[in-house]
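Usage

Read records sequentially. Each one opens with the input sequence:
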Amino acid sequence: MSGSSIRMVADESVDAAIIEGLRKGGFDVYSMSEKQPSVSDDNVLSVATTHAALRITEDKDFGELVVRLRKQHYGIRLVRLAGIPSTEKSGLVGTAVQQHFLALQHSFSVLDRSKLRIRNLK
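and closes with the structure output:
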């Protein structure tokens, strides 16, 4: 699947360099901090679902919304790459999305330094 056919919604916690890197990689990224700053987590989830977009976040709270509260979503990607330069993070996120896009849909995934964990929530 090409990057341009993959839509993502990045919440306000996502580093701007990650968003920029993903866009340069051909991904369609809707940035909440650019378009709709300071909205609730539920609204961010709604925007991502409306756009049939994978949700990118660095905020652990979204796990509770989709796992415990079972909020509707298209897929959540939690980025846990502390200590890695932002430009390198965007490459890691882009590569993981490109390689695992189908598995990421309707799942909660966590990308950290050592691996990508995917929990299917269908």
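Summary fields computed downstream for this record:
- Helices lie at 16-24, 32-35, 41-50, 61-68, 86-104.
- The longest helix spans residues 86-104.
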